[in-house]
Structures are given as C-alpha cells and as structure tokens.
Amino acid sequence: MKGTLFARPNLKWFLVGALLVSGVHQLTTTGRSAAPKLAAPISLANYRASDEEIEQLVAYAVQHPSPELYCRVSKCYENRGELRRALFYLRQADKVEPKD
Fold first, then answer.
1. What is the DSSP string of 39-72?
2. pTM above 0.85, yes or no
3. pLDDT level of residue 14 (50, 70, 90 thresholds)
4. What span, in angstroms and rounded, lies between the C-alpha atoms of 83 and 49?
5. Class assignment of domain 35-95?
C-alpha cells in the first residue's frame, strides 16, 4: 500500500466532485417545485386573500389534491365571510385522502 494514489490524492478532483454533488442537490431540492405563497401556513386569523390568490391556490389544490390545501382554501373563504364556499372546500378536504 505504498502507492501514490492513496498517499497523495488529487484534492482538486475531490473538490470538483463535491461541488458537482452540491449543485445537483441544490437543483433537485429547490427546483421548480415551489408551491404558491398561499401554501404556507396562514398566520393571521383575519388575513383576507385576494380573488387571484385564492384562484391560484384552488388551481394548485386541483393539480395536487391534499386535505391541507383544501383546508387552507376553506380558511381563506371563512376569513372573507363566504361560509358556503368555506364549507364546500372543507367537504372537498374530507373527500381527498392524504398521500403518505
């Protein structure tokens, strides 16, 4: 085991490989998979979302159905005082099975 391969590795290639792995990891974890900003938890109890924001959230919920998204839509309508629509989306949340 006195070979030069193990005694003096070429650190330049090790660094290039590490940067490549880091770059691929960055692209795969933060790529174009971001949800709309309304997919974040609604922190304010009285937050009133605009029609455009709710439309974006509903479109995202239709494409990627989950009970949490439908509950968020329901909460937005509840905060606006539109209780019938809020109830409709709560029922939609009950129909969708969570993906595990």
1. GS----TT----HHHHHHHHHHHHHS--HHHHHH
2. no
3. confident
4. 15
5. mainly alpha
